[in-house]
Automatic annotation (TrEMBL):
InterPro entries: PEBP (IPR008914), PEBP-like_sf (IPR036610), YbhB_YbcL/LppC-like (IPR005247). It holds the Pfam family PBP. This is Phosphatidylethanolamine binding protein. Belongs to the UPF0098 family. It comes from Rhodococcus wratislaviensis.
Amino acid sequence: MKINKGTLSISSPAFGHGARMPDAYSKNGRGVSPPLSWTGVPKGTKSFALVAHDADAPLIEGFTHWVLYGIPAQVDSVPEGGGAGYVQGLNSTGAPGWTPAAPPAGHGTHFYYFHLYALDAEIDLPPGLSMDELLREIDPHVINQARVVGTYSNE
């Protein structure tokens, strides 16, 4: 996948980049997905895809918390608990939708990467793709990408 430097930026009003996510987005709270918004959409963007991944999970491939795609170009945010109306892929539990942050007790702080991909096409993909499947499909269409990172621990 191309590494692009551009204007696209993603953030969350619920936590700063690199800061601890509130309990609401974890198994210790309501377990809903955090609100996300983006700016600096590059010219030629036709749609977006979003992936949330915890590379610190004690699994070889980490843990995918959310796979969301088919987000129209005119959309600039996903509200808290959002994602309805877009295509949901499968998280690492094998289910669609957000899986709350839940690092194992004593495993330290985990970093949750929310990756946003601006695509040059409206790609018609079926629901239920894994993160890896989605990334393979969108790779030739990524014109810019951005990320925001939240942290969480069960210490």
